Fold this sequence. Notes:
GO terms for molecular function: kinase activity. By secondary structure, this protein is an alpha+beta fold.
Amino acid sequence: MDMLRERFGADLLRLEKLLHERYGMNAAAFDANGARVTTFVNWGNSLCPVIKDNPASASAICAVANGHFMRQARETGLPVSGECDAGLCKFCVPVKVNGDFLGVVGGCGRLPASGEVDTLCIASANGLSGEKIGILAQDCRPITDDELAEAVALARDQVSRMTSGAA
Length: 167
């Protein structure tokens, strides 16, 4: 059985809800194979569910970013933050027990403070018009570097608490 889901599923669900409530992010935990750990559906904006619901844009934007960020977190053992190809902030924190990488938890879906949605990338992957993307992106709230750092620190601290003493 998947240790991440079995041992930490309830804790990760609480953390996802906290990240969503506090920072308005799409929060999620993924196991080491990239599968979602919980079924908590949460959106920080109107654009992300449209990207995620389309298999072409989900694989071209979301899956690529998830894979890249997860790989970095696995290799470094450190939190990773940056932007997805749609131009939205993303971060993840590795979940490790006894040096074993179990997965990541993090959030995405907010705009960098000085950033903008990459309409061309989304239109290319999804087929939506620039006008439709602009309408959907209107509620993509900016996040400051300090807020992003707070979200990362919160996730890192919660992961540390939940995994301390786990064997």
